């Protein structure tokens, strides 16, 4: 009983005493990126993750296929917006300062929608982390997705873990050079496809692809593709876990998002310790033996190069490949799965207490998935409520916004002009936005200033309104003058109105009529 209680300890020194001075990874499988193994003053030790089969590995491949499919296919999807707008479904048109997303068009003055999306992304990340730890890092982060793809290329050309280790340690021969060049060429192709797909989000994809192939594209397109190709090739091919360990700030932030009810990849020490590679002999000798046979399959499978048995670590990306590796070993040994599992710290502590009082078998039988009540706790509900509220507010705003917008700027110098007949004139710069795909005939009028008239340089008719034609998907600058008879004119607030000629839509913006000098002081 004392042994079981001791194994729940988080003291890494006790683990070294139980499993060896190298931190619990005897032989050639070592957690080289474990904080106790790693040094900031020596060259990086390469990690050769083994090929793993299991539900989590399958889920990762499905997610990789979906994400890469979306990334590479989206620029080629067409969406008809009429003859005056691009027909690419998703396009960030920097030249025209527009963002198109299927039926949604975002203008520069509507950047708050982008800000809303960024806030939703942050809250979504907090929500996922609160529920399932670093699931984003393990399944959907671009660094993880492309690294998985690059490692798959290595497996295909060079072989599994042992073959890659031997090849890396072998002297340079024609065979090694051929394999390495084949791997690097495949990496380069994937990296170039990555950079090429990125630039297609900023220009019409078919047109830009033809221009790049013919050498007539803008230099910035070639520069961007080259830069993204180089960074993808280097980060996913050579830096890999170093990006997550040293460059990414999220591992250091995500700790504040977790609590004892968050799902994390956990080694159940109460069940696995004390570990032994010779369980039958130890049991025959009367020694207490856990389910862990110290095979290091979890270490060999880890793409981050850590040992999950050493407890929670900053380097763990919660990819769960160690679960697949351990479950296969448990199946071969005809023992229950779940020695390494998705669990919560609260469940680990509860199971450890059960194991200490009633035995490992009882605690193992109690291992089940997380209850819904534990997932839907206040922190998770708060994040989900905020995320949903922002998303709903943005959807309502998009659904109710009009195709016409108006901005009014008053002349700053002079604020007003006194004419020879005693009348007072103010000048305004109006910006009329037509978001529709057809030209709009709009009527500019005055709301208030019952004694005032207006006119424009193109329509000098003094009246209460004037008519302008705004081209489709354009912003039209209109110079407007407002005149009131004097000489006893007082400053007064009013509003400009813009109404479609058929009266279907209107915009209104407040303005101020100046009629006397402002006091200085």
Instruction: Output the number of helix runs.
Output: 20
> Gap between N and C termini, in Å?
85 Å
Number of strands: 15
Uncertain ranges: 1-27
What Rg do the Cα atoms give?
33 Å
Write down the overall geometry: elongated
Q: What portion of the residues fall into strands of 2 or more residues?
A: 15-25%
Summarize model confidence as the mean pLDDT: 86
Instruction: Assign a percent range to the helix content.
Output: 40-55%
Largest sheet: 6 strands, antiparallel
User: What structural class do the secondary elements suggest?
Assistant: alpha+beta
Short description:
The chain has 521 residues and is an alpha+beta fold. The protein contains 20 helices and 15 strands.
Description:
The protein has about 525 residues and is an alpha+beta fold. Helix content is about 45%, strand content about 15%. The chain contains 20 helices and 15 strands. It has helices at about 1-5, 10-20, 55-75, 110-130, 135-140, 140-160, 160-170, 175-200, 205-215, 220-240, 240-245, 250-255, 270, 280-285, 295-300, 320-330, 345-360, 360-365, 370-375, 380-400, and strands spanning about 90-95, 100, 105, 265, 340-345, 405-410, 415-420, 425-435, 440-445, 455, 460-465, 465-470, 475-485, 490-500, 505-515. The strands form four sheets. Strands 6, 7, 8, 10, 11 and 13 form a six-stranded antiparallel β-sheet that branches. A four-stranded antiparallel β-sheet has the order 12-9-14-15, with no helix packed on it. A three-stranded antiparallel β-sheet has the order 1-2-3, with no helix packed on it. Helix 3 (about 55-75) packs across helix 6.
């Amino acid at each position: 009983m004392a042994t079981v209680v001791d194994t729940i300890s988080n003291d890494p020194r006790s683990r070294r005493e139980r499993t060896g001075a190298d931190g619990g990874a005897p032989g050639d499988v070592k957690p080289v990126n474990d904080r106790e193994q790693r040094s900031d003053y020596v060259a990086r030790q390469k990690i050769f993750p083994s090929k793993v089969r299991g539900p989590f590995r399958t889920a990762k491949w499905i997610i990789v296929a979906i994400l890469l499919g979306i990334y590479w296919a989206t620029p080629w999807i067409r969406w008809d917006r009429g003859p005056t707008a691009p027909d690419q479904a998703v396009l960030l048109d920097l030249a025209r300062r527009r963002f198109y997303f299927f039926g949604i068009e975002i203008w520069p003055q509507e950047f708050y929608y982008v800000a809303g999306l960024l806030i939703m992304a942050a809250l979504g990340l907090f929500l996922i982390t609160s529920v399932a730890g670093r699931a984003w890092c393990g399944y959907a982060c671009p660094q993880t997705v492309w690294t998985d793809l690059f490692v798959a290329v290595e497996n295909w050309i060079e072989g599994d873990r042992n073959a890659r280790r031997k090849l890396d340690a072998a002297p340079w021969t024609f065979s090694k050079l051929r394999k390495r060049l084949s791997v690097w060429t495949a990496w380069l192709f994937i990296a170039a496809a990555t950079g090429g797909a990125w630039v297609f989000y900023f220009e019409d994809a078919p047109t830009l692809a033809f221009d790049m192939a013919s050498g007539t594209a803008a230099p910035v397109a070639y520069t961007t593709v080259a830069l993204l190709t180089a960074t993808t090739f280097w980060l996913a091919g050579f830096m890999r876990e170093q990006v997550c360990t040293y460059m990414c700030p999220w591992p250091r932030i995500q700790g504040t998002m977790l609590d004892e009810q968050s799902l994390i990849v956990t080694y159940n020490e109460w069940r696995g310790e004390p570990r032994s590679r010779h369980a039958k002999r130890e049991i025959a000798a009367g020694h207490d033996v856990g389910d862990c046979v110290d095979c290091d399959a979890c270490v060999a499978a880890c793409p981050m190069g850590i040992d999950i048995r050493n407890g929670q670590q900053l380097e763990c990306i919660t990819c769960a490949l160690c679960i697949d590796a351990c479950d296969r070993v448990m199946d071969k040994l005809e023992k229950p799965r779940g020695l390494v599992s998705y669990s919560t710290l609260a469940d680990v502590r509860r199971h450890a207490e059960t194991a200490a009082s009633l035995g490992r078998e009882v605690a193992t039988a109690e291992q089940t998935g997380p209850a819904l009540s534990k997932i839907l706790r206040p922190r998770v509900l708060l994040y989900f409520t905020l995320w949903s509220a922002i998303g709903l507010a943005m959807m309502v705003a998009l659904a109710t916004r009009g195709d016409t917008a108006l901005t009014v700027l008053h002349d700053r110098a002079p604020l007003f002009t006194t004419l020879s007949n005693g009348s007072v004139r103010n000048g305004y710069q109006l910006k009329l936005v037509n978001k529709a795909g057809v030209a709009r005939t709009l009527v500019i009028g005055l709301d208030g200033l019952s004694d005032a008239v207006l006119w424009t340089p193109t329509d000098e008719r003094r009246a209460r309104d004037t008519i302008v034609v705004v081209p489709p998907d354009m912003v039209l600058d209109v110079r407007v003058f407002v005149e009131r008879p004097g000489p006893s004119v007082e400053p007064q607030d009013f509003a400009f109105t813009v109404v479609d000629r058929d009266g279907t839509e209107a915009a209104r913006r407040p303005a101020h009529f100046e009629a006397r000098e402002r006091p200085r002081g």
